[in-house]
Amino acid sequence: MKMNRLASGLTLCALTICSAQAAKYTVVELPLRDKGINSYARAINDRGEVAASIANPFNPPIDVDLINFESEALINTLTDADGASVGNINDDDLLILYSFITSDATTTNIFYPQSNDSTNPFLQQIATVQSYVLENTEVEEKIGFDVIEQDLQGLTKSADTLATGINNFSAIVGFGEAPFQKINYRNENGLNLKYHVQDFLVRGFMDINGVTIEVPPIEDLLGGISVANDINDSFEVAGYGSVDVIDGFDDVVDLCDDKEARGDIPQEYCLRQLRDEYQGRVRSKLANSLGNRDPVDETFLRRAIIWEFSSSGELLNSRELGTILEPAPGDTRFYESRANAINNNGIAVGVSNDFYQDSQTVVINKAAVFDGDDVHGFISDEEYLESTALDINDNDVVVGYANKIITSATRNKFFVYDYRGDVLSFPDDFFESSSSIARGINNNGLVVGEGEVDTDLIGSRRKEAFLYDINTEEFTNINDLLSCDTPYTIVQGIDINDNDEITATAVIYRERTAINGELALDARGNTIFQNMSVAVKLVPIPGGSIDDCHLIKETVERKGGSLYYLLGLALFVFGGRLRQKFKA
Length: 584
Known about the structure:
Blueprint: E1 25-29, E2 36-44, E3 50-57, H1 72-77, H2 81-85, H3 91-102, E4 129-135, E5 138-142, E6 148-149, E7 154-155, E8 161-166, E9 172-176, E10 181-186, E11 192-197, E12 203-208, E13 211-215, E14 226-231, E15 236-245, H4 249-254, H5 259-262, H6 267-279, E16 300-309, E17 315-320, E18 337-342, E19 348-355, E20 363-371, E21 374-377, E22 387-392, E23 397-406, E24 409-418, E25 423-425, E26 436-441, E27 446-452, E28 463-469, E29 474-477, E30 489-496, E31 502-511, E32 529-540, H7 576-581
Antiparallel strand pairs: 1-32, 2-3, 3-4, 4-5, 6-7, 8-9, 9-12, 10-11, 12-13, 14-15, 15-16, 16-17, 18-19, 19-20, 20-21, 22-23, 23-24, 24-25, 26-27, 27-28, 28-29, 30-31, 31-32
């Protein structure tokens, strides 16, 4: 890390001669600042097109028909209750109503009607993740499965959508929720109610020229589950999905057809309750781990899948992939796998259940290569506990991470695996006990990811992005490749194309923005400053060299910090409200 960089808001040009400075990469913030509070980069293709996402989109639509404007508590809180009740919502009242809705305030009387259900079927659902594809200054939203709602005069904005991959023909893949839509229901007491329901929890999609194409699960009972993580130039899509359900679950679903069994609720909401109950609707931020759990504790039994499409979007084939382990005779448990990436050779990588040290009872997750019908594990559990493969290039070199015990704590260590030569290495990173993850690799052998840069043994550690060259075995903090005057700290390297352009998440210290897109103010009317997560593209500088920040005589400690805790996204990683919700 360069300790002598300048704080946000100051430029090196004010202190020295700009032309004397150099760098190897320039930082381009993706133009998403007007879309949401924080932004996160995802995939990049060789044309420089980037898939990215935002968290907490600005100006969400408010369905005033669902709010009880006769509530005295609400009237006393709003600045213009009469205007808000007919849809003329000013900025102050938007903040108030948004706060009420997203807090799931079922104990208050501002929603009509009230409900003791913790998921409140009458409450408006507002998405917290939206995705975009960017080419230079052009920004195009990818709406996934969202639909037009007449009462809102536009999209429902109720369905989280995460774009995860893009090929060199500009086809995008990702996954998203079904939108929440209102249905009318008259109950036995004669009340006309509006329930919010959806057709499925999460489903993969492919977007070609703005048209959303489903990437369907093999088992679609109750809508099933599918996630599309990556796409190659042959339009093969890698991900995972439901291939079966637990025994007896179809009988439970059938109970929703029986009015006496389901009670005084609509059939559609009965099905929503089943999805919520069995999958757990936890709208927390994007974790992207398969998780260490008994593989039979899920309603939907999931496996890695490769979907084969034509270039026009026609689904040609769906191929279920296997697992590393081979169950013993009589073992009826179901074992899972997931594909995270696929190269142009049709080889996918990801994670698979396996037995820990051949125990036949303890199940862990191991990095896996899916090559045809073969599922190949390559990391020994004698030293490492669990592992995940996140990317593979066209030379069949795989990157990811594995965890082990270091200094009495579980730490991740990034790996590079040459599948063709069957050679595995764990390169040196920031320091011995630093946790590090490799997320992307290009065909030039450059690897991007992030690792811990603090040596503190207690508490959270700051993280910064790295670049590793498998040809020279050179490991570099990406921030050392930037100009000294940059206000950004790169905290996560996500993807890298064959032009060596990098998508990354950065942190910058600047004005905080409220949900209405305006600057957030404190009680005295002062602008609030804080660390913000932003999506960036790092572009190589021809003939550039590493900037020597020690030449700067007057230095100011940069406030950017790392704020790695904002990423949650996995992405990613924007991983998230979505990945945790569906236990991806």
